[in-house]
Predict the structure of Membrane-bound metal-dependent hydrolase YbcI, DUF457 family.
Amino acid sequence: MAGTGPVTARYAGVVVSGTVPGRDRVACRESAGRVGAMMGRQHACCGLLVGVALAGLVPSAPLPVRGLVVAVAGGAALLPDLDHPGATAARSLGLLTRVIAHAVDWVSLTVYHATRAPGDPAERRSGHRTLTHTVPGCLLPGLLLTVAGLLWPVSLAVACSLLTGLLALGLRRAGLLLLVVSSVVSWWTLTTYPGWWWLVSVAVSCGCLVHLAGDWVTEAGVPLLWPLQSEQCRWRLLTAPVTFPAGSPVETQIVAPLLLLGLLVEAFWATGLLGAVVAAVSPEVSG
């Protein structure tokens, strides 16, 4: 709803009320309760969508490389939620990823307090939906993977295996089996086609960025403008003009089927099957 009005925000159990110019929903706030982020399965589907699109932009890449890019982007779309110990990414490898999640949460909270503007509440005690939900924070994993790949090439295969396994967990399909298979496939693909390793790093950043887009269209919002300051806030959570509650029937019964349909259409288009089907069902035009 447009206009200026009172805003009630919840920061890890602390409610902060105030008046913020502009839309109520773009106030400096951390949503709680029913206002959450998009569900993991939908994030994974969004990642697959952007992965297929990315693979379609490099038709010269070998088919195994393009397939790996799609899977990696799907898994990377779950990475930004590694700042929350209860998220799918944090549960992917048990105690190890839970420890990492707590570390990411701590780093994110530290960055928040180090960079917050006067309008950003000082009461925040959680780093969820802060650093890893910014554009720089989404580009960072791809950059780190690039550096790691240059220094230690085997790290690319390890990352691909973990991200593909994370994708399976996000889709809730054969996580352990896919993790084992993806380890072998990732190693074979990256050693057989070493010249395409950079595409994996791009896929990781693209997957993280599409996570932002997913949360942007929910009522949760993301600090899209960070580190820029606006209306005395640097961590203002922005949302799309039209949003829906995460986990609501809108997401599960409308958005999810549309994502699946879009993924199927895009996959058919990328493989050339869509054109073949259209040509087969279209009536021939006699000259």
Q: What stands out?
A: Residues 1-35 have pLDDT under 50 and may be disordered. The beta strands are 5-11, 14-20. Residues 37 and 215 are 5 Å apart (CA to CA).
